[in-house]
Structure prediction request, 366 residues.
Amino acid sequence: MAKRLTEHVTSSWVGAANRMAPRKAKRRIIAYVESYDDISFWRNLFNDYETSTCVFQVMLPSSSSLAKGKKMALMNALGDSGLGENMIACVDSDYDYLMQGTTRLSRRIINNPFIFHTYTYAIENYQCYAGSLHEVCVQATLNDRQLIDFQDFLEQYSRIVYPLFLWSVLFYRHHDLNTFPLTDFCAIVRIHRFNIKEPKACLRNMERDVRQKLSELSQKHSSLSEQLPGLAKELEQLGVTPDTTYLFIQGHHLMDNVVLKILAPVCTQLRRERENEIKALAGHSIQYRNELTCYQNSQCSVELMLKKNTNYKDSYLYRKLCADVERFLKRIASSKKDIRHGYCTNLPSLQQYYKLPAGNSAKGRK
Prediction:
């Protein structure tokens, strides 16, 4: 049982605190996120919407414990009644967006205007956005040569896993987490032994495993297979297409077992090329060592660069998330309370209050 006042903080409580602040102070909106990794993503998003009158404060779900996660971020606001114009929750969508209300948590996430979700499975899917991966390699290696087409690779990867992904979502919609669990799906759609000289070979190997599993599922669950075409059409309305499936699979799996499996050897090759270039251009051994040391000190880990990647803002799903934030800000701007503090903007004037004719004042009124 909560014993401290701060453990009962709600949107109304924050709004009251805003009204007690100096009139010129900025209105503060609390945004609860799931974990440390989420802070940077949501901070980067809200930066584009802060003004001279309104700021966001991104916080972990609990200030009294180390508990984290989606449920904790939502529970911290004391249920849906705790969220509002001054307190919001920001979470990964996971499969809840694709469930479209078939579970209680899904209904809560997609229907509550004060809960923001990523639309992709997690923030890692944005960080692995295909159109930004070349820039990640450049930042990590300081070599701008493009060895493979990341966009084409991930689109082909998506087309291969798409039919199996439909099965995964279908079982989740039927609340069956045991027949084809997410761990089994991820174990099949991972990259093994990526070869930079023949990048598509690993996809062909994965495709064999996918086809084998598809055959197994079709034979054992023939009645469910009839629902797949309808599910595909429904998911297409949500942005899931054969070319974009990678944005909706488990984020950590995509980063660790797909994208980094590609980026690591690519960056190794790019660094080797740059070092060979330094060796060829160096006039003597001392110059070579000095230049090589300078280059090595300027490099960064590709894992770090990927986690700091923010070049996903042209993604249609990110634009959809931005539209939600803009809708939220319009909502609080059009409410009866002033967006700066919650001060009432529709209070009657002194003359209206006392029903005085224009030009008179309340002074001397008995």
Notes: The chain has two domains: 5-123+321-334, 127-307. Confidence is low (pLDDT under 50) at residues 1-7, 336-356, 360-366. The chain has 17 helices and four strands. The first helix runs from residue 11 to 20.
